[in-house]
Amino acid sequence: MRSSTEAPAKALRTPRAAGIAGIISAITLGGAMALVHRAVPDHPVDAATWLANTEDRRALRAALVLLPFGGIFFLWFMGAMRDFVGGREDRFFMTGFLGAGYLYVAMIFVFGATATAFLATIDDVEHTSQKIEFFHYGRHLTSSLLREYAPRMACVFALTTTTIGTRLGILPRWLSWLGYVAGLVLLTLVSSVVWAEMVFPVWVLVLGGYLTVAHIRHEPAENG
């Protein structure tokens, strides 16, 4: 006979909100990227003009507020996607999926720390000449992190996720094509086309919405 202190084991179920995390992540990351584009110019500008414009630094600080939340919700989104795959996951592709996702979050967090140090140094340095010298270094460093290296990891994540979903038949054909196109854009065009990295949050938004709808449809059938 089972003792009164024993309770039946319960499976830990993925909450319905996990799919919505992809939508929130896409909105916060996309908003942060848009603010960074406004704050950190894509092309060389006069440093003195940028330093005199406080609106740009405010936009960058606002982006730094959104970035941590975008990274946290993106991890929840990864969990929702892995739960959607279930026990059919392949170790090879899942290694790429997890590795690229973790590295992408790490990249945007490193960007956040670097941009925070960049702003703090600009505020602390008293001499204008030193501020101008540091501005060019900080602009190139932050731009390369968010617009060069992070999108490459996003490319691997998008391609791996799409391949897993396509091979298992859990993604519709149109969403598979969208994932492959997004991955190729992030791989080949992100260095030469302005705003190309915004393809990734748009893809995450669409995929997060699909996972949310699929989870809602699956739940009543599972209960029945």
Describe this structure in words.
This protein is mainly alpha-helical and 224 residues long. It is 79% helix and 0% strand. It contains seven helices and no strands. Helix 3 (54-85) runs antiparallel to helix 4. The longest helix is centred in the middle third of the chain and has 41 residues, at 128-168. The protein is elongated and about 60 Å long. The protein starts with 16 loop residues before the first helix and ends with a helix. Mean pLDDT is 82; it is low at 1-12.
Write a concise synopsis of the structure shown:
With 224 residues, the chain is an all-alpha fold.
Layout of helices and strands:
Elements: H1 17-39, H2 47-52, H3 54-85, H4 91-124, H5 128-168, H6 173-188, H7 199-223
Q: In percent, how helical is the residue content?
A: over 70%
Which structural class do the helices and strands define?
mainly alpha
Q: What's the mean pLDDT score?
A: 82
The low-confidence runs, each spanning 5 or more residues with pLDDT under 50, are 1-12
Approximate shape: elongated
Query: First CA to last CA: what distance?
Result: 31 Å
Major β-sheet annotation: none
Radius of gyration, whole Å:
21 Å
- Multimerization state: single chain
The number of distinct helices, counting runs of at least 4 residues, comes to 7
The beta-strand count equals 0
The string of secondary-structure elements, in order, is HHHHHHH
In terms of DSSP E residues, the strand content is under 5%
